[in-house]
Amino acid sequence: xxxxAVLIIGSGFGGQCAAVNLLKAGIDDFRILERxxxxxxxxxxxxxxxxxxxVPSPLYSLSxxxxxxxxxxAEQAELRRYTEQLIEQFGLRERVxxxxxxxxxxxDEAEKHWTVxxxxxxxxxxxxxxxxxGPLSQPVIPNFPGMDRFQGKTFHTNNWDHxxxxxxxxxxxxxxxxxxxxxxxxxxxxxxxxxVFQRTPHWVLPRADRKFGRFQRWLxxxxxxxxxxxxxxxxxxETRVIAFKYSKPAIHLVQQHALRFLKRQVxxxxxxxxxxxxxxxGCKRVLVSSTYYPALSRANVTLHSREHGIASIxxxxxxxxxxxxxxxxxxxxxxxxxxxxxxxxxxxxxxNAVQLRDVWAEYPRAYLGTSLPDFxxxxxxxxxxxxxxxxxxxxxxxxQMNYILDCICTVQAKGLRSIEVRHDAERTYTxxxxxxxxxxxxxxxxxxxxxxxxxxxxxAMFPGFSxxxxxxxxxxxxADHILS
Length: 484
Known about the structure:
This is NAD(P)/FAD-dependent oxidoreductase. Pfam families: Pyr_redox_3. This protein has helices spanning 13-24, 42-45, 76-89, 178-187, 214-220, 223-238, 240-246, 248-265, 269-274, 292-296, 356-359, 393-413, 423-437, 441-444, 466-472, and strands at residues 2-9, 30-34, 96-98, 102-108, 113-118, 123-131, 153-156, 170-174, 193-197, 204-205, 287-288, 301-304, 310-313, 317-320, 325-327, 330-333, 348-349, 378-380, 419-421, 481-483. The two termini are 26 Å apart. The protein folds into two domains: 2-39 and 92-138 and 338-483, FAD/NAD(P)-binding domain; 147-202 and 247-333, FAD/NAD(P)-binding domain (3-Layer(bba) Sandwich). Strands 1, 2, 3, 4, 5, 6, 17 and 18 form an eight-stranded mixed β-sheet that branches. The protein has a five-stranded parallel β-sheet with strand order 7-16-8-9-12, with no helix packed on it. The protein has a three-stranded antiparallel β-sheet with strand order 13-14-15, with no helix packed on it. The radius of gyration is 23 Å and the shape is globular. With 484 residues, it is α/β, with parallel strands linked by helices. The chain is built from 15 helices and 20 strands.
């Protein structure tokens, strides 16, 4: 039995940011629960070839922890080093419980605390619970007939097996999203043949990457220079919302730019046709790559569109819908995550045994994407409608921390035991979110994406400027909450 004032579930950037903010607020009675046997989250877990961030590194970092990045778009190894620097700088390693896979959590109304059951580390009690497991932590693998018969190697990009040598092998990649767009250029020159199975094409924009020289890296180590660069990148990216929500002419210009880029990089008209989306740019995640199209144009790469997709799998490979059999040695699932309906993967029982899965049966929802009625002292980092399609997710996470720490510190300062958002406040906020969503390309762009839940509601994205979300989270609104 372990008791803490605060428990944080997940040790990625969300969990790290929560931990550092607690320390800065003078709260050190907390523990981080991590289900894996290592600390660090996304950039320690995702080690597939070509893995890199698609937001400029100076912005994709925590405001209180600048770093001398080697290039504009950092690759996985450097992001891992940044993660490890954060862990060491703030002394977080001794505050984590590894191998603590959460099975279920329950609110005890009499004791005003959460009981957290883990698979291997026993039971924890905590007054405040922060879920920072992240929206991209539950890989999804589609179910095709005959999958269990395949005699070759298979794995998801989230769990890349580096002991397997894919060089000179026949490889199939299922999926054509952000991870696939990084893996394909990285391995295509080294494999015998690469089969890419694309359900729908994505819009792609060029990646304006660059290496930083010694002097530029020195400048990045100076806080004023770092802040200025972050500010410049932030406002440049923030203007994208104008196209995503407010201006059809603006999004038309962006789409024309993407079409010119496609034509320039893919000279084959048949391949170009396969790669041309039939929805408005931005409706699905826009890929940022200058190497994806050239890789698909290689002689040893075959792109299979939906009408030539997978029908079944057998011992030696893949049977396509149009009757072709493809012998392959390796199948890589680049098929994404359950980022909407599976935001929290374990059962959560609130007041009066209210179940989170029942509350979210129609679609996930939360006040500020962070807290829920009937679930006191529970906070969800990167919860429903906190995703951001145009800038750094870390900006949103830091904004959430303003609200979360305000809640915790208010309860402690007043000598109280719990804080809970009111039903009417959550309903009003959720209605506003989905009213504003109607105007966005994510809702009206003519596609079905992982941004949407099974209900059709866009659950992943915040429908506006990130600074608007920041303003919403700047200060606790006591009238929206029950304090007891």
